[in-house]
Amino acid sequence: MSTGFFGDIQKIKYEGPDSTNPLAFRFYNPDEIVAGKRMEDHLRFAVAYWHSFAWEGSDPFGGRTFDRPWYGDEMSKAKLKADVAFEMFSLLGAPFYCFHDADARPEGKNFAESTKNLNEIVDYLGEKQQQTGVKLLWGTANLFSNRRFMAGASTNPDPDVFAYSAATIKTCMDATMKLGGDNYVLWGGREGYETLLNTDLKRELDQMARMLHLVVEYKHKIGFKGTILVEPKPQEPTKHQYDYDVATVYGFLKKYGLENEVKMNIEQGHAILAGHTFEHELALASALGIFGSIDMNRNDYQSGWDTDQFPNNVPEMALAYYQVLLAGGFTTGGTNFDSKLRRQSIDPADLLIGHIGGMDCCARGLKAAAKMVEDGALSKPLSERYSKWDSPEYQKMLRGEYKLDDIAGWVEKQDINPQPKSGRQEYLENVVNRYV
Ligand code: XUL
Ligand code: CO
Q1: CA 246–ligand 2 middle distance (angstroms)
Q2: Which residues does residue 267 pair with via DSSP β-bridges, in sequence order?
Q3: pLDDT band for position 2 (50/70/90)?
């Protein structure tokens, strides 16, 4: 039975590029085959419960701007929220969703009551999944909003908070497992510091590693088949977040022996905050063998804040999905819209329109990327650029069969005299522009 929240809006359909209907897809056509696979199976779209249903439109200077019938602390409101959320997933044809415990259940007066509320809402979400066929891409714990986490969760100087966080993660992993989630995510919301003057950095990193080991052990204990994902971010809310970027997290995983157990959930806006392009983070994760999933939301390039906007830049998406395709595509991962409306976009239809635009933009990016892969548009010039390495002598050098003095002798004997070659950046940029 419909809640009526979206009025008489019907399931969003693909109408093709010429459509001017704001409530139709122009490029996202789930059944269309791209590079041998249905578009829906490539992109694996997920809606983020928090931004669309839990966030009330506040910013640092003002409070709630949205007016939704499910706001409030009662379980009945949480269920209405779930009803509307699943209605939206179905209208959009989004195959997945993602949620934090705190998005979906009322906070209890203590841990036991919060867990009881979570379990009740998880049963309800399970029924909704059954009814609609929508699945869970990932679950996670909100260990950053409540004031108990203000000095961190696993990295808190107070071990009571570490224990409370561990207990909360356990309940959220149970919930994710019960709902058949494909991944479990850890974003280090307040795992960082405001000032080194009150922070023992080494202790905090050790604590964070202990928590991640506990998570991995519990995953195996309960037989969770999904992937454990860490989501890097350089700052916001803390001045310095320990999971700064892909490179930093990889170093952390290596130091603590977790590099074969954990993969990355890479967010476009976080990449930008870290001073990287999205494709840099994706390419690096892929090169390190830890690519997992993506959060698809852009920042405002002028304000520099983590503004979590829907993607609308097709060339950026094309380069991102190009890296995703090179990495072999998603396995357990997907494209989660960790995106929210602007706080003036108060109409129910805005929720749909934001996602429709994002899905269309990703679809265009994917199609451009697939064509670039198919044509070898970038891979041919790339392999040409490195082709000299294929020669037997250079292969031996790469394998470590020559020492430094051998190489010096060889260079002298062969009279090696490197001749600079063009990097052809403008040419390659023009090639990309032919596809987007
Ligand atoms: C915060 C952020 C989170 C994570 C999940 O910037 O991206 O929403 O995706 O905790
Ligand atoms: Co995110």
Answers
A1: 14
A2: 295
A3: very high
Q: Cβ-count burial of 404 within 10 angstroms (0-12 exposed, 13-18 middle, 19+ buried)?
A: exposed
Question: Tokens in use for 3?
Answer: 């809640």
Pinpoint the alpha helices (H) of 53-192: 75-92, 101-104, 111-132, 159-178
Share of the chain above pLDDT 70, in %: 100
Instruction: Place 1 in a pLDDT band, splitting at 50, 70 and 90.
Output: confident
Give pLDDT, residue 408: 98
Question: Does pLDDT of 69 surpass 90?
Answer: yes
What's the rounded Cα separation, in Å, for the pair 197 and 341?
37
pLDDT reported for residue 245:
98
Instruction: Please identify which of the residues 101, 103, 182, 243 carries the catalytic annotation.
Output: 103
Give the number of other CB atoms < 10 A from CB of residue 69. 12
Our mutation pick for probing the ligand 1 site, out of 97, 138, 169, 187, counting the most ligand atoms within 8 A of Cβ, is 187
Each residue's pLDDT tens digit, 341-364? 999 999 999 999 999 999 999 999
Looking at domain 13-375, its CATH architecture is Alpha-Beta Barrel (3.20)
Burial of 306 (0-12, 13-18, 19+ CB in 10 A): buried
Task: Examine the pLDDT at 231 and tell me if it is beyond 90.
Answer: yes
Compute, in angstroms, the gap from residue 95 CA to the centroid of ligand 1.
Answer: 20
- Cα of first residue to Cα of last residue in the chain, in angstroms, is 42
**Which atom of ligand 1 approaches the CA of 48 most closely?**
8
Would you list which residues are annotated within the binding site for Mg(2+)? 231, 267, 270, 295, 306, 308, 338
Q: Structural domain boundaries of the chain?
A: 13-375, 380-435
